[in-house]
């Protein structure tokens, strides 16, 4: 046994992760793939890595020093279970199986339960940062037992991205906690991307700027509070010109956004947890709308004329920046609320300040901004919402007028802003003294005797809507 860590599944993510591991002092990396040709190719192409290749799973397991630690990097789903079973049959108590794929956290909980009686540790680890991240330093969100993290933690820390001197990895919590937090990361990723896209649409349709000029605006934003990887790559995408047509690249891409499903999981679970994540949900729906060609064409056919874009002045770009920032704060507040709710439901002890910190580097949503979130949760782990934390309360207050103007301008100009709009409505829902939920509850009592509570005294009540409309107190509530 020569290797302290093994990787099973050598497609791009697995290969890159294996190379990253091999490049770090102290690691010897065993590699295995279902088809051996892939393993041979990797080993031949990267002699510097000193990989320990195995054609059979038996040899792979034998090549690992104890406690054996193997990271599975195969397509999430059935393939994962097959590899887990192969390893579990050969591993011994104390050994560690890590699933580094984008697994559904519910599957991870079930797999951990299935493996736990064998004494083998099962770890679901969210890994963010795409192919480049896997190779040069991802953000890693491992779940699983604290004991397994003693072995695994230093290995993961050796390959993770580094943000302000700290490796972007932390023990998130038991069983599915790591994949749950990765799911939230992706939900926020969807929201971030949608908000940036809406900002682009406003700057172009209302602001009248061409993509290259908008690239400059985004590059400028990237030097301020909006600094982030996604803003940075957006500037690059907008500057890019299509070689075949000479048009801005963004204009030759079909306006239809795909998804592999993690954003959908976020919203499905938000509904189950009862956490309002409208900013994230609208981002998921916006991708869905973009694919509804039949409906889009049908409505375009019946619409006689579209509104003229409103006239705006030179300060418009700054206002859009403020609207973007405030909407982004809402999306993150919603994502972190969901972490709180998930932790409560599934019994995880999740340090939200640490999650914010490991998202500062390596992952798709990496940004300086995460420092502010880390500070907020560090100061008060029980803050009811990020919107209450002093820094964010002030930031939103500073941007509020611009935010409202931008959403109003969008509505009058006919520019769809589901992300900006949902974020602002969410903020107003929390900020307003009284919600029209009073009327909804009254309607429920009218047609279904669902009862209501009063503002002026305790108890549960029902009004005889079909009779003389007297009110009675409902006992036993
Ligand atoms: C990451 C990304 C990564 C991947 C998503 C994209 O953190 O590295 O989130 O996991 O890019 O699968 O998701 P969609 O295909 O759903 O956009």
TrEMBL record:
InterPro entries to which the protein is assigned, alphabetical: 6-PGluconate_DH-like_C_sf, 6PGD_dom2, 6PGDH_C, 6PGDH_Gnd/GntZ, 6PGDH_NADP-bd, 6PGdom_BS, NAD(P)-bd_dom_sf, Pgluconate_DH
EC number: 1.1.1.44
Residues that hold substrate according to the record: 102, 128-130, 185-186, 190, 260, 287, 444, 450
GO biological processes: D-gluconate metabolic process; pentose-phosphate shunt
Reactions the enzyme catalyzes: 6-phospho-D-gluconate + NADP(+) = D-ribulose 5-phosphate + CO2 + NADPH
Record GO terms (molecular function): NADP binding; phosphogluconate dehydrogenase (decarboxylating) activity
Ligand binding (NADP(+)): 9-14, 33-35, 74-76, 102
Biased composition (Basic and acidic residues): 468-477
Domain of life of the source: Bacteria
Pathway: Carbohydrate degradation; pentose phosphate pathway; D-ribulose 5-phosphate from D-glucose 6-phosphate (oxidative stage): step 3/3
Domain 6-phosphogluconate dehydrogenase C-terminal: 178-466
Residues forming the catalytic site: 182, 189
Record bears the keyword Oxidoreductase: yes
PROSITE patterns from the UniProt entry: 6PGD
Keyword field: Gluconate utilization, NADP, Oxidoreductase, Pentose shunt
Residue span of region Disordered: 458-477
Transmembrane segments: none
Subunit structure: Homodimer.
Function: Catalyzes the oxidative decarboxylation of 6-phosphogluconate to ribulose 5-phosphate and CO(2), with concomitant reduction of NADP to NADPH.
Family: Belongs to the 6-phosphogluconate dehydrogenase family.
Record's protein name: 6-phosphogluconate dehydrogenase, decarboxylating
Organism encoding this protein: Saccharopolyspora hordei
């Amino acid at each position: 046994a020569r290797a302290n860590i093994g990787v099973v599944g050598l497609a791009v993510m697995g290969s890159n992760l294996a190379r990253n591991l091999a490049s770090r002092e102290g690691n010897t990396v065993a590699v295995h793939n279902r088809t051996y040709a892939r393993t041979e190719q990797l080993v031949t192409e990267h002699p510097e890595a000193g990989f320990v290749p195995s054609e059979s799973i038996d040899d792979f397991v034998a090549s690992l020093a104890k406690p054996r630690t193997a990271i599975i990097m195969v397509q999430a789903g059935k393939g994962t279970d097959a590899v887990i079973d192969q390893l579990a049959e050969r591993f011994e108590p104390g050994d560690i199986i890590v699933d580094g794929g984008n697994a559904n956290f519910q599957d991870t909980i079930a797999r951990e339960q299935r493996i736990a009686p064998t004494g083998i540790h099962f770890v679901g680890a969210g890994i963010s940062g795409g192919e480049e991240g896997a190779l040069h330093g991802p953000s890693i969100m491992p779940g699983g037992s604290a004991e397994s993290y003693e072995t695994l933690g230093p290995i993961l820390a050796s390959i993770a991205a580094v943000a302000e001197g700290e490796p972007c990895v932390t023990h998130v919590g038991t069983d599915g906690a790591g994949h749950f937090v990765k799911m939230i990361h992706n939900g926020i990723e969807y929201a971030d991307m949608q908000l940036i896209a809406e900002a682009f649409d406003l700057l172009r349709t209302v602001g009248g700027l061409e993509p290259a000029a908008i690239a400059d605006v985004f590059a400028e934003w990237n030097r301020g509070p909006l600094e982030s990887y996604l803003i940075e790559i957006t500037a690059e995408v907008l500057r890019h010109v299509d070689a075949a047509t000479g048009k801005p690249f963004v204009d030759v891409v079909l306006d239809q956004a795909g998804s592999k499903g993690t954003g959908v999981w976020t919203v499905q679970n938000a509904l189950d947890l009862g956490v309002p994540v409208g900013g994230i949900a609208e981002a998921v729906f916006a991708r869905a709308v973009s694919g509804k060609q039949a409906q889009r064409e049908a409505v375009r056919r019946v619409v006689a004329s579209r509104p003229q874009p409103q006239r705006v002045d030179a300060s418009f770009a700054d206002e859009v920046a403020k609207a973007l920032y405030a909407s982004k704060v809402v999306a993150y507040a919603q994502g972190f609320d969901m972490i709180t709710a998930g932790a409560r439901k599934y019994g995880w002890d999740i340090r939200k300040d640490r999650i914010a910190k490991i998202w500062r580097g390596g992952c798709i949503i990496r940004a300086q901004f995460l420092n502010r979130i880390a500070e907020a949760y560090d100061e008060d782990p029980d803050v009811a919402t990020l919107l209450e934390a002093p820094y964010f309360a002030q930031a939103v207050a500073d941007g509020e007028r611009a935010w409202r103007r931008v959403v109003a301008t969008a509505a009058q100009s006919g520019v769809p802003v589901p992300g900006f709009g949902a974020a602002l409505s969410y903020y107003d829902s929390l900020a307003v003294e009284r919600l029209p939920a009073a009327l909804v509850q009254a309607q429920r009592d009218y047609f279904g005797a669902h009862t209501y509570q009063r503002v002026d005294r305790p108890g549960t009540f029902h009004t005889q809507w079909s009779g003389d409309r007297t009110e009675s107190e409902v006992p036993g509530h």
